[in-house]
Design a protein that fits this description.
alpha+beta; 87 residues; Zinc ribbon domain-containing protein; 3 helices; four-stranded antiparallel β-sheet
Length: 87
Amino acid sequence: MPTYDYRCDTNDRVIEVSHRMSETLTSWGELCERAGVELGDTPADAPVHRLATGGNVITSSSLGSGCTPAPSCATGSCCGGGMCGLN
């Protein structure tokens, strides 16, 4: 299932959630419920918007070995988190 980042302008927080491509969350309350986090001091009806991240499908096969050929890996100090070549 794709993951999406949503930002709340009221509290300036960004939260990542998974949902179907056809869904869109519009309020802080919906976002918190989906993510399993507390509302905090932010009103449940505070608007949120999906960031232009494209929606990523995370599966075990898409994670790979964690190290692709890159200069930092060639030296034996592979970058952490499976993000070689992205920094």
